[in-house]
Protein: Putative addiction module antidote protein
Amino acid sequence: MAIKTKPFDIAEHLNTPEDIREFLKEAADTGDEVDFIHALNTAARAKGMSEVAREAGVTRASLYKSLADGGNPNFTTVSKVAKALGCKLSVA
Structure:
């Protein structure tokens, strides 16, 4: 009998603002900019793309495009999305 599996999606496990902050912090601390943009995408999906887009002042379509694999969001977009996710960018 074959075992049925489904792809793991971390977004399904980011249930609280604290979960999202810790996830983004880990991505920023251990990855590169591509990893961080991917993490923003995952966190935005966890919170809800429509809600994040509204809070960031961008359209949902442009948010999907900016945070997609190969997307190249500008710093303003990254900053606004981070803020919409309850985070702030800082230099340490």
